[in-house]
Design goal:
Helices cover 42% and strands 13% of the residues. The termini are close together. The relative contact order is 0.18. It is built from nine helices and eight strands.
């Protein structure tokens, strides 16, 4: 096993809990359309596949998409979602416990940090500013930065190529099956966190390389394992 030097992080459910603001924007759209709104726990199960999928699930009232839902309706609702979320991106969004300190520890230890999220890239600068993470990540990709997004391996492989690391030198860190599948598909070892958004399923079912209950334990593991090589 080669020394790991590149850490690719997911964002929502891994580094930040953004559900309160995503739920606000989702319900604002539904209210405009005269549709029923949903509580945060319900919206939490819909997060992870990008903004469009979140809106489709909200308009359908569940994970099973309404076959009568037109693309025009989805696109119109999506644009309104973007407007509301842009105004409410960081009102109640918070970093999970230990994340900011952990990222700083990893950066100071010499790791290269990157971020690959399915969230549209336009919302990332505001989040980084609010969290004071402007100088942490060497490369960031949103869900619309490339033609495909996780669980497709392309974003992860693109990051490795752009930053000059092999897949064997890399960890993918995430909270959902899309993160773990992307890692598997890219032949990258995966570190899973149990506290995030995984559609109500145990992340261990996706067979990550290692699993952690909190971010501090994950950071301690990465720092310790690298001292062996």
């Amino acid at each position: 096993m080669k020394n790991k030097q590149l850490l690719i992080f997911d964002l929502d459910g891994t580094l930040i809990d953004s559900v309160p603001d995503l739920a606000y924007a989702t319900n604002a759209v539904l209210s405009e359309l005269g549709r029923a709104t949903f509580d945060e726990d319900t919206v939490r199960h819909w997060v992870g596949n990008g903004a469009k999928k979140l809106v489709e699930r909200a308009l359908s009232g569940g994970d099973v998409l309404d076959p009568n839902l037109s693309e025009q309706t989805v696109q119109q609702a999506l644009q309104r979602f973007f407007v509301h979320y842009a105004e409410h991106t960081c009102v109640n969004t918070q970093a999970y416990e230990g994340v900011s300190q952990g990222l700083q520890r990893l950066k100071q230890a010499g790791f290269t940090l990157a971020l690959v999220t399915n969230k549209p890239a336009q919302f990332l600068p505001a989040i980084f500013t609010a969290m004071n993470w402007q100088n942490l990540f060497s490369l960031t990709l949103g869900g619309d930065s490339l033609p495909v997004k996780k669980p497709d391996p392309t974003p992860l492989l693109y990051v490795c190529e752009q930053l000059g690391f092999s897949t064997q030198q890399t960890y993918m860190v995430g909270d959902s099956k899309n993160d773990i599948l992307a890692g598997h598909n890219a032949n990258i070892d995966t570190l899973a966190l149990t506290y995030g958004y995984n559609y109500g399923q145990d992340i261990r079912l996706e067979n990550p390389t290692h699993t952690f209950e909190n971010f501090t334990d994950l950071v301690d593991f990465v720092l310790t394992i690298n001292q062996r090589y």
